[in-house]
């Protein structure tokens, strides 16, 4: 594709939440600062607001305000259109997105623009119908809302970004930087993207996906018949537990225990045990210097190879990389050996 024009949508202009500035700053940093020694010409960046354009450069309003030189009409003709985020009310409260915004996004796509979202910007692309039938992602904290609101979208909360050719989506915050560097890699080649990453003091490519950042939910239950048994199992994960063992301790048949646990937690006994063991392994990797082999034994996952297998499958990276990403933050003495 080569370096072309990049139009970044600014969806809020008055009282902009400070946390939204992060996603907005990412494409500005990647595409807005000329790097003529890497590629000439570099990208042409324009910020396009959903409000009235400030052609004369005069700011107004109170608090933190953004006034852009361009408006939604200026999305037309851009090679790439990026939506960094949408207002919180559109995500959390279901407030409607601007019809003018969704119409401008559809027009830009129909004109041949490459469409990109960072974090909650996926809600704008979905509202415009540009994600229908496509695999897409967003921040894992909002993925369920995206999937529920737009059932035609194939939401994958496990990845950092999804490249579906002419429509690309990323998870939140720093994953937006991963995607923007990926765009540079696609447009200008790996050498340019790698050197730009060095200048930004970031990794050119991060291993794994969002799974390594998603806390493993501890399934609670109000079922007094199995609640104590699950608590006991959590305290004895190093044992070779079976469904029969847990059912016997609950004074139930294996079939009854299976049905009760699935009704209470939404998962099977085998999957529940695996989730608990992986959760404990993550805690031990974060909070101790224990060898991988020992962590496998303490969590009931067995050998170091078996622990690596399950980590790669369910977390997305090996245990050693997870430990480097989440170094010890609590005293080792506070963790059960």
TrEMBL record:
SUPFAM superfamilies: Class I glutamine amidotransferase-like, Homeodomain-like. InterPro entries: Class_I_gatase-like (IPR029062), DJ-1/PfpI (IPR002818), Homeodomain-like_sf (IPR009057), HTH_AraC (IPR018060), HTH_AraC-typ_CS (IPR018062), INH-QAR (IPR052158). GO terms for molecular function: DNA-binding transcription factor activity; sequence-specific DNA binding. It comes from the Bacteria. The keyword Magnesium does not apply. Residues 227-325 form the HTH araC/xylS-type domain. The keyword Transcription applies. Pfam families: DJ-1_PfpI (PF01965), HTH_18 (PF12833). Keywords: DNA-binding, Transcription, Transcription regulation. This is Transcriptional regulator GlxA family with amidase domain. It comes from Actinomadura coerulea.
């Amino acid at each position: 594709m080569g370096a072309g024009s990049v139009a970044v949508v600014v969806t809020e202009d008055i009282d902009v939440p400070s946390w939204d500035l992060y996603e907005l700053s990412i494409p500005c940093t990647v595409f807005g600062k000329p790097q003529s020694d890497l590629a000439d010409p570099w990208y042409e960046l324009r910020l396009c607001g959903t409000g009235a354009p400030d052609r004369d450069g005069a700011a107004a309003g109170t608090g933190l305000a953004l006034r852009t030189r361009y408006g939604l009409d200026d999305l037309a003709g851009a090679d790439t259109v990026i939506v960094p985020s949408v207002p919180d009310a559109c995500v959390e409260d279901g407030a409607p997105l601007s019809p003018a915004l969704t119409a401008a996004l559809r027009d830009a796509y129909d004109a041949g623009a490459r469409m990109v979202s960072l974090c909650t910007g996926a809600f704008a692309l979905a509202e415009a119908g540009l994600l229908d039938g496509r695999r897409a992602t967003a921040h894992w904290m909002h993925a369920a809302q995206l999937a529920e609101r737009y059932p035609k979208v194939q939401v994958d909360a496990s990845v950092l970004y999804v490249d579906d050719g002419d429509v690309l989506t990323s998870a939140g915050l720093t994953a937006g930087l991963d995607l923007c560097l990926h765009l540079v890699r696609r447009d200008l080649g790996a050498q340019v993207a790698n050197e730009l990453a060095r200048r930004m003091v970031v990794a050119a490519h991060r291993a794994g996906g969002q799974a390594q950042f998603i806390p493993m939910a501890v399934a609670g239950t109000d079922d007094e018949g199995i609640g104590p048994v699950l608590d006991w199992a959590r305290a004895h994960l190093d044992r070779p537990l079976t469904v029969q063992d847990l059912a016997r301790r609950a004074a139930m048949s294996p079939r009854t225990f299976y049905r009760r646990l699935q009704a209470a937690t939404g998962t099977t006994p085998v999957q529940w045990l695996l989730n608990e063991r992986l959760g404990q392994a993550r805690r031990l990797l974060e909070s101790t210097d224990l060898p991988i082999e020992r962590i496998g034994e303490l969590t009931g996952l067995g050998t170091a190879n078996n622990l690596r297998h399950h980590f790669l499958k369910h977390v997305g990276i090996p245990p050693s990389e997870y430990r480097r990403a989440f170094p010890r933050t609590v005293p080792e003495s506070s963790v059960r050996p």
